[in-house]
Amino acid sequence: MTLPEEPPLLTLISPTEGMTVRAGTPFLLQGSLTDSAGEPLADAQLTWSLGDVPVGRGWTCWTASEPGITLVQLFAYLGDELVARKYVRITVEGHDRVGDCD
């Protein structure tokens, strides 16, 4: 009997659900895609978006956002096929008025 091949495992490492960041300050986007043995899939393509706006490609990248609740999405492709998607919501805090100081 042959067991079916398990799908790749997509992990969204950073940011984490509910994380708070400052508006305009870069934060790390980090993810991985591995096979069932935990080995990275070298031919995988990871893409990142904030809401529906693409912001980067790769295992890691840095981005910043405007104030509000932001949906961070990670998409994993093998060739042209979307094989997995993960997302988290983060809070982006910032001042609406110019001249505010911390």
Description:
Helices cover about 0% and strands about 55% of the residues. It has about 100 residues and is an all-beta fold. Strand 4 and strand 5 form a beta hairpin. It starts with 8 loop residues before the first strand and ends in a 9-residue tail after the last strand.
Attribute tags:
single chain; 102 residues; mainly beta; 8 strands; disordered C terminus
Topology:
Elements: E1 9-14, E2 20-22, E3 27-34, E4 44-50, E5 53-57, E6 60-63, E7 68-78, E8 81-93
Parallel strand pairs: 2-8
Antiparallel strand pairs: 1-3, 3-6, 4-5, 4-7, 7-8
Proportion of strand residues: over 45%
Tally of alpha and pi helices: 0
> Quick check: average pLDDT?
88
**Any idea what the shape is?**
elongated
Helical fraction equals: under 10%
Distance from N terminus to C terminus (CA atoms, Å) equals 64 Å
Strand order of the largest sheet: 2-8-7-4-5
Largest β sheet strand count, sense and barrel closure: 5 strands, mixed
The count of DSSP E runs of length 2 or more, i.e. the number of strands, is: 8
The ordered string of helix (H) and strand (E) elements is: EEEEEEEE
Rg for CA atoms: 16 Å
